[in-house]
Every structure is written in structure tokens, then in C-alpha cells.
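Study both lines:
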Amino acid sequence: MPTAQINDIEIYYKVIGKGYPFILIRGLSSSLDSWPQYSIEQFSKFFKTILFDNRGAGRTSIPEGKYSSKLMASDTIGLMDALKIEDAYLLGYSMGGCIAQEIAINHPNRVSKLILASSWCGPSHGIVTPVPEENPFPKMLPLIKEENFEKMARILADALFSDDYKKNNPQIIEDVVKNYMAHPPSARGFEGQISYVETFDTYEKLSEINIPTLILHGSDDKILPAENSKVLAENIPSAEVYFFENAGHGVIIQEQERWTQKIIEFLKRK
């Protein structure tokens, strides 16, 4: 099992393919196994693709306490150093996009292109779901403490997709649950990660990101509404943005072929 000692933790990671480094950062409570297999196969045809579990998730250490986005960004930089990667393309999905912003702002020489997928800039100018009952995370935490991981995974999976998509793809919930259950979160890790919201806010520094940036979002996202990517795009000088119609927070699965190709086209562009 490939791991690296970074800061106070052991980070589990995988390297697939050859070429220029492309680092993928996952969202809240999920492991690297949750990336769509199609996307990884396509990325690794062109790039040295690095996947890893954030602190508190998957097979990476789960220390006590709160994890800030800056701390998790430091973990990512530490992994780059351990793998002798000077600079890389960087993709952050959901919370991973928050970590990626911290890296782009505080370590701009380490990132040559940036992709922010289904993310936001933090609470001060961020937009939360207009229907609080549709946010799965408050419902998930009590279930983690009860170690009712399967029910928790089903709540999350149900919130990722539109009703029409779930109706036309009845297997999708089971697929998401299976991937999530492969390495389910712990209460300590979930609480540690979700506490990043308490200190994360990049709004005032978004204008400092002068790296070519692609922003992607599902137009019907119930977890982090698409308006969040409009805020990012309006404040990052070199950003371009694309919205996938009728897709939710699970756009990386629902629209995985188009989503993947958008990213590859952006990264291969001179």
C-alpha cells in the first residue's frame, strides 16, 4: 500500500499513467475510490495522474481535532514534495476545490493549471442550498456516530442526482453506495474535515489567482448551488466556466464523459 509520511499523518495515494503530473483532490469524507473509473482511465492516457485520500478519509490517517483547508493544502504540497513534483495541474472537486484554491493562492508556482469542480469560495460570499432539507450532511453526522454507514451513503447518493436521472439510472445509487462503503468515513474524520468551513474563505484573494482556471458545475446542484461557480468565475481573472444543464453535485458521474473531455481539452490546450 503506497503511503507517504506528510506532516503528522500517513497519506495513502496512487500514481497512474505517465506524463505531466495531474493531481486530483477529493471532496468531503470520500476516498479516492469515488473518482469515476472512466475519468481516471482517460486522464492517465495523457498525464501522470495522482490520486490520494485527504486526512480523515479513506486509508489516510485520521487524527484528532479540526482540519482547516490550509492544513489539507499543506498535506497536498507535502505529497508533491515527497513525490518530487515541482509543479502540476490541479483538480479539486467540492471541498477539494477549496483545498486547491488555497494551494493556488499560497503556492502559485506549484500549479500550472487549475480546475475547480462543484466548489465555492466559502461562507462570506458563498451560496448555500435554498432548501436546507436537501443538504445531506446534517443528516449524515448522527448516522456516522451510529456507524450506520450504508444509510448515510444512501442519503448522500440520493442528494447527488436529479429525480429524473435516478429514475432513468436506477443502478446509480447502488454504485455510489458501493464505492462509498469501500472505505467509509469515521465520525472523527468527518467532523475534522467538515470543520474546514469555520475558517475557509478565499473571496478576497480570488483575484490573486493568475493561473489558467477552468470552473465546472452542475446547474441543478442541491449541495453547493451553481451560483457559487459564478462567484468564482467573476473574481478569478483567468477563469472560464461551464455549466452542465440538469446535473447536480454528482455531475462528475452523471456527465462523466463530457466532464472528463472538458478537462482534458483544457489541459492539452497550449
Remarks:
- The radius of gyration is 17 Å.
- Strands lie at 3-6, 9-16, 21-25, 48-52, 88-93, 111-117, 213-218, 239-244.
